[in-house]
């Protein structure tokens, strides 16, 4: 039976009487919602996690506990990652929508005018957890304010089939692009190509094309963050190499893949390697009877993770940095802040982090020493993903313009155009023109 | 007594008000009001807002300032925009021709008497009834580069040796999208034209047959001229819908590969909603207006000519 207190009955009766006697006009005149409707509420919009267990944990265990401890109602809404930006734009323009919206990579810069400064929460986290990584900080803070609260970095690493590579005489993941192309050529000849999207999709496309460009010495901008520098000898070399790499070693159908296609292709044994989060491995190890190799052994035992190969200028990584924006239009800002503080509490966040099994790397240094990273050596490469990541807009710092260029898929399209037959010089020139339009130079 | 007198005056006034409605101009005004209000609220207001937005430098969360036609000048030099313009015309043109041809053929078949006619008619409407996003997802799976059932069938029949890259090749991607649009649009043409066919008196065809007209001649000289007004209206609706299509391309390719399949609507969405450049997105969207306006005016003039004839 529900306990009803005398005070709450009086309050409810008072409100009801007020509404009954003055109607809507009465409510509007006071400028306040009736007392019985004043429960604190927080609406949190996130992507559909590639680790379904984590969404289930939030829904079934963590959020009900948060509701109880914080005395508020929390609604978790999950959508496809590609739909987060449209939702944020619509919400901001209409002035109503989720209180907290998840941002990817440079998204927070696009919405900088419409978010609440979360410096107090972020700096507290920074102090408590051994410092926020430079990569994460640069994506969440423009130096003046924290536009969003760093959440986690689902690291992008190559998932690769060890036995298939071994059949070609390769026992460790290729260190250079040349080596990768050479083994990829042999693999493709056997109907086991490398699977890499160059489509318009939020994660797997840019997290491949940006580090690939950097590894050849190419860059969007000079260090001043204004001068477009993509039309260089290095970029051109990277585009030329990509044309050959694509044709010789890759699944050419991947031009239209979104972030889920390579998961399905890898799990069904049609590709030998792909840049992805750890979701392929996690899914394969969760269902060892469903996902098996052609020899009938569990697929997950044939998967290893490795960073992208190195180019002439070195080895780079860009990951899917995730953060949470508290929206300015929110009428529940205090409650939302309280919730963010709650979920970033080490005990609560740790519970979620464990459910990810290494799929996501936290944004602070402290978690590098977490025992989870020793539990499964296959997941170990993800430990330092957030520490080693580099942000779009390089060699400048990330900002609103870099976010715009990323949202327009300019770097990705440069390579996509080339592999479809556009001359490399023309593809690079096209990218230069598009970037110049963005940076107004 | 006084109360009665007052009531009498009220009644007289309302009678006068009603008398006003006897004047056709007033009646027409009153009857048109609800529609005008709805059109104003949901068409004119957003349209004007769109125009104002396209003349500003507004971004998401920033109302911006008036910049005149700067956004349109930017578009003029935007290669992707011109690709979208070409794609939209190509997409609308090709699909409309096919939808008309197949729809007419289907309508002629359905106009005959055969067993199970009612059920077949209901089934034919299915592609039109299923929510577009849902059916397009099914098609997306059928064109999937790795798991395409079409490729599977062609490979097993020995017609191809390598899987076809339906959505990864710009031309094939456009072709695939058109195929889905035609599949979805044919029922609308078929059912509307069937309704048109049923208004044509069978006696006319019979008389022509008695005079010795063969089936093709009966179609061309009797059925087609009588069906033309309906056909033109159906085409008008279809062209407007296809020109502004969004869902299909958005679900199937998202405008890719490398912007090769963008239409006006998807490009406007990419710029305005995804990239947050609201004013530029509005400009792309508005650029559709003059093209569509010309097409509609030409079609309406043609319809009028056909009707007068």
Structural notes for this entry:
Chain A is of the alpha+beta class. Chain A folds into two domains: 39-155 and 321-387, D-Maltodextrin-Binding Protein, domain 2; 157-318 and 408-439, D-Maltodextrin-Binding Protein, domain 2, CATH 3.40.190. Chain A has 19 helices and nine strands. Chain A has a six-stranded mixed β-sheet with strand order 2-1-3-8-4-9, sandwiched between helices. In chain A, helix 2 links the parallel strand 1 and strand 2. The longest helix of chain A is centred in the N-terminal third of the chain and has 25 residues, at 6-30. Chain A is globular and about 60 Å long. The model of chain A is unreliable at 8-24 (pLDDT under 50). By secondary structure, chain B is mainly alpha-helical. Chain B has helices at residues 2-20, 24-54, 70-76, 79-110, 117-124, 126-129, 132-142, 149-156, 170-198, 202-210, 215-243, 247-252, 264-274, 278-308. Classes of the chains: A alpha+beta (441), B mainly alpha (309). The interface between A and B is large, with 41 and 36 residues.
Topology, element by element:
The complex is a heterodimer of chains A (441) and B (309).
Chain A: H1 6-30, E1 41-47, H2 52-70, E2 73-79, H3 84-94, E3 100-104, H4 107-110, H5 119-128, H6 134-140, E4 149-154, E5 157-161, H7 162-167, H8 177-189, H9 206-215, H10 233-249, H11 261-267, E6 273-276, H12 279-286, E7 303-306, E8 322-326, H13 333-343, H14 346-356, E9 360-362, H15 372-375, H16 385-388, H17 400-407, H18 410-419, H19 424-439
Helix pairs in contact in A: 2-14, 10-18, 10-19, 17-19, 18-19
Chain B: H1 2-20, H2 24-54, H3 70-76, H4 79-110, H5 117-124, H6 126-129, H7 132-142, H8 149-156, H9 170-198, H10 202-210, H11 215-243, H12 247-252, H13 264-274, H14 278-308
Helix pairs in contact in B: 2-14, 4-9, 4-11, 9-11, 10-11, 11-14, 13-14
């Amino acid at each position: 039976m529900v306990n009803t207190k005398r005070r709450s009955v009086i309050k409810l009766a008072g409100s009801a009487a007020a509404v009954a006697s003055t109607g809507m006009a009465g409510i509007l005149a006071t400028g306040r919602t009736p007392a019985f409707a004043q429960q604190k509420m927080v609406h949190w919009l996130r992507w559909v996690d590639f680790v379904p267990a984590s969404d289930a944990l939030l829904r079934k265990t963590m959020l009900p506990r948060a509701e109880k401890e914080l005395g508020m109602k929390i609604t978790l809404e999950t959508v496809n990652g590609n739909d987060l930006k449209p939702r944020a734009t619509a919400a901001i323009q209409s002035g109503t929508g989720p209180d907290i919206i998840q941002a990817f990579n440079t998204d927070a810069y696009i919405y900088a005018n419409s978010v609440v400064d979360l410096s107090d929460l972020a700096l507290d986290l920074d102090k408590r957890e051994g410092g926020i990584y430079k990569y994460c900080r640069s994506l969440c803070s423009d130096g003046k304010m924290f536009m969003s609260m760093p959440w986690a970095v689902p690291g992008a690493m190559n998932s690769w089939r060890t036995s298939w590579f071994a059949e070609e005489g390769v026992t460790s993941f290729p260190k250079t692009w040349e080596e990768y192309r050479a083994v990829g050529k042999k693999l493709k000849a056997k109907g086991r190509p490398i699977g890499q999207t160059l489509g318009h999709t939020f994660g797997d496309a840019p997290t491949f094309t940006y580090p690939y460009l950097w590894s050849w010495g190419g860059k969007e901008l000079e260090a001043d963050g204004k001068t477009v520098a993509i039309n260089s000898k290095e970029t051109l070399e990277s585009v030329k190499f990509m044309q050959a790499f694509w044709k010789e070693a890759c699944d050419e159908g991947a031009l239209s893949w979104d972030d889920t296609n390579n998961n399905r292709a890898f799990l069904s044994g049609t590709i030998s390697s792909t840049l992805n989060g750890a979701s392929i491995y996690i899914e394969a190890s969760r269902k060892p009877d469903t996902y098996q190799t052609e020899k009938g052994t569990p697929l997950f035992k044939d998967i290893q993770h490795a960073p992208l190969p190195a180019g002439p200028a070195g080895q780079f990584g860009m990951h899917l940095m995730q953060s949470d924006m508290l929206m300015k239009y929110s009428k529940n800002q205090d409650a939302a802040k309280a919730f963010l503080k709650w979920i970033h509490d080490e005990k609560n966040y740790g519970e979620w982090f464990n459910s990810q099994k290494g799929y996501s790397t936290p944004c602070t240094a402290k978690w590098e020493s977490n025992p989870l990273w020793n539990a499964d050596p296959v997941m170990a490469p993800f430990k330092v993903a957030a520490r080693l990541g580099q942000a779009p807009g390089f060699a400048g710092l990330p900002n609103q313009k870099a976010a715009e260029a990323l949202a327009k898929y300019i770097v990705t399209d440069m390579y996509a155009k080339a592999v479809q037959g556009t001359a490399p010089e023309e593809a690079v020139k096209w990218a230069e023109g598009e970037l110049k339009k963005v940076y107004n130079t | 007594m006084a109360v009665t007198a007052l009531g009498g005056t009220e009644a007289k006034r309302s009678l006068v008000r009603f008398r006003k409605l006897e004047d056709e101009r007033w009646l027409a005004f009153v009857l048109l009001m609800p529609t005008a209000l709805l059109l104003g609220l949901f068409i004119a207001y957003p349209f004007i807002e769109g125009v104002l937005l396209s003349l500003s430098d507004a971004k998401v969360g920033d109302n911006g300032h008036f910049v005149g036609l700067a956004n349109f000048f930017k578009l003029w030099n935007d290669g992707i925009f011109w690709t979208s313009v070409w794609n939209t015309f190509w997409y609308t043109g090709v699909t409309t021709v096919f939808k008309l041809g197949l729809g007419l053929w289907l309508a002629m078949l359905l106009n005959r008497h055969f067993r199970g006619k009612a059920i077949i008619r209901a089934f034919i409407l299915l592609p039109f009834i299923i929510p577009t996003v849902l059916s397009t997802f099914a098609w997306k799976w059928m064109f999937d580069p790795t798991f395409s059932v079409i490729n599977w069938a062609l490979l097993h029949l020995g017609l191809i040796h390598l899987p076809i890259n339906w959505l990864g090749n710009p031309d094939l991607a456009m072709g695939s999208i058109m195929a889905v649009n035609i599949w979805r649009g044919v029922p609308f043409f078929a059912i509307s034209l069937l309704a048109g066919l049923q208004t044509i008196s069978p006696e006319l065809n019979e008389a022509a047959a008695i005079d010795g007209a063969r089936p093709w001649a009966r179609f061309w000289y009797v059925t087609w001229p009588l069906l033309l007004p309906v056909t033109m209206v159906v085409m008008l609706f279809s062209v407007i819908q296809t020109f502004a299509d969004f869902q299909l391309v958005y679900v199937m390719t998202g405008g890719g590969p490398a912007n090769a399949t963008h239409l006006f609507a998807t490009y406007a969405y990419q710029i305005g909603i995804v990239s947050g450049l609201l004013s530029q997105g509005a400009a792309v969207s508005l650029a559709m207006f003059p093209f569509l306006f010309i097409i509609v005016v030409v079609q309406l003039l043609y319809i009028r000519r056909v009707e007068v004839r």
